[in-house]
Amino acid sequence: MTAVDWVVVGVFMIATLAVGLVFARRASKSTEDYFVGGRSIPWWLAGTSMLATSFASDTPLHTTRAIREGGLSAAWFYWNGIIGGVLVTFVFSKLWRRAAVVTDNELIELRYTGKAAASLRGGLAVFKSFFLEIITMAWITLGMVKIVTAIMGLPPTLGLFGAAVPTNVLVVATLLVATMLFSVASGFWGVVTTDLIEFAVAMTGAVVLSVIAMVKVGGAEGLKQGLIAHAPMGERSLDFTPGFSIESSGMLVFGIYLGMQWWARYEADGSGQRAQRFLACKDENAAIAAGIWNLAVQWLIRSWPWYLTALASLVLYPALADHESAYPRMVADLMPIGLKGLMVASFFAAFMGTMEAHYNMTASYALNDVYRRFIAKKKDEKHYVKASRYLTFSIAVMAGVVALLLPSVMSAFRFKMELVAGMGLVLIGRWLWWRVTAKTEIAALLTSIASALLLNGLLVAPKGEEAKYSALRLLLVCTFSAIAAVVATLLGKPEPTEHLIAFYTRVKPPPFGWGPIAKQAGDVGPTGIGREVFGQSALALVFVFGGMIGIGKLLLGDVAVGAAMIAVAVAAGWYGIRWVFTKPAA
């Protein structure tokens, strides 16, 4: 890192902090302004913010590891999310916006009643705030620590006030102070606005590095020959699907990715970051548009620079043992003066964009679903905004401590995924079937946590078999949780009819799963979620999968197939968008 590089980084950091100060006053008006931007966020900004929150500094690290270990087909670990993303965009985005809650946990008491609902809302908020989200922020921080130490070539310890302090402790402290001060002050409008800036910078850095890496290996043909010569999988590293022989276990892993993983997650219905942005949109159409924008940019544009860089790293660093360190090492070795500063700024951008969003959302859980709901019920808005800022600070500190304890980014990623996989079907079911109750969710949650912890102790993967064992654990967790949820639903009493009618009237879920409730509620107006959703979703899948694979084929030298797939994708996307937005909003 030269002086020029540090100037680039410094200009970016100053610009970002300035945005936070601009929005500090607006965020102080109310908790609705602080956490959902006064429900006035335009679709393109909400959609870009979704992209930025899923584009953390750790993402290229674990993506690189996945592809170095399993070739391009290992990206199905991520690509399965396209199916869930389409479902969320065309079904749940509307439902979230109609619910008009502040947090996804608040929906629980809108959907259910009684002590079970209150316990689930508070317990889930505590679990998310002080466990799930802390783990997420910790692995993001760990990823950034690896990047900073690799690019800057830092030693294991640094001198501070005459004492030798572990480098990772100093880096974590510096990173958290930079992001925490901004998040505490700016609120949601500041978060989504800087997300736009940070995503643009991060995307630019990723594209530049991928171009340099591909030039270094000799383009698409040079990459192919280099993989044949150096990569353990050889030319198969470029295959879009895994081997399906019984010995390879590729069929098992691929089947679980496509058949289960897209719904076996605790944000299967858009909960979390996406729900917060849908809730912040101006109206339902804006929420749908935000989802479409997120889908298109994330899968057609955002990820391919990482995949190309990861594949090139197999040629440039074939013997590297720590696969997660390959990406930052390429930044250190390949990027010239000035561009290296841009790349470091892009990492800071990705890190800050994601961490600020997680701070804000996690504080919203702690404030809205715990402190305001159960501890301090009748305070004014200024009190709650002030409390939100204290909670943001506390959460940031906890995340930093946990970051120092994690072994690797990917292991934490998989563990969190397995821990709450059993919640996925229930989260989808609560919108689509009137019979689901608070006890259904509680049974699924507790079974998911218990079985994941047990299986992680019993089914420990040998080196090189992590993906296979993680997929198997996921299958078992979901099976046990589904059984527990069905038993709890059938043995328990349904929610009171009048409460279900009120929910149905407000949210207007698809009527096919609400038979007796829909009949008693009468005409509540169009839901906008009828049979047309199946056609729109099918076109969206053709658009995203066709466009994503087509672009990949073009980049890897298969021009004819790539061009044909892109043409089909464009046609499907054009027709699908016209179909969605020529109908009046529900």
Model description:
The protein has 586 residues and is an all-alpha fold. Helix 10 (219-230) crosses helix 14. It has a domain at 3-409: Sodium/glucose cotransporter, CATH 1.20.1730. The chain has 25 helices and 2 strands. A two-stranded antiparallel sheet has the order 1-2. The model has no long low-confidence stretch (mean pLDDT 86). Strand 1 and strand 2 (163-166) form a beta hairpin.
The name CATH uses for the topology of one domain is Sodium/glucose cotransporter
CATH fourth-tier homologous superfamily of one domain: Sodium/glucose cotransporter
Note poorly predicted spans: none
Radius of gyration: 24 Å
CATH class of one domain: Mainly Alpha
Q: Helical content, roughly?
A: over 70%
Shape: globular
Oligomer: single chain
Mean pLDDT: 86
Q: Count all strands and give the number.
A: 2
Structural class: mainly alpha
CATH second-level architecture of one domain: Up-down Bundle
Q: What is the H/E string?
A: HHHHHHHHEEHHHHHHHHHHHHHHHHH
Cα distance spanning the termini: 54 Å
Short recap of the structure:
The chain is an all-alpha fold and 586 residues long. Helices cover 75% and strands 1% of the residues.
List the helices and strands and how they pair.
Blueprint: H1 3-27, H2 31-36, H3 43-53, H4 59-70, H5 76-79, H6 81-99, H7 106-111, H8 114-152, E1 157-160, E2 163-166, H9 167-217, H10 219-230, H11 250-261, H12 273-280, H13 284-302, H14 304-316, H15 326-334, H16 339-375, H17 381-403, H18 409-419, H19 424-432, H20 438-458, H21 466-491, H22 497-507, H23 515-521, H24 532-555, H25 559-581
Antiparallel strand pairs: 1-2
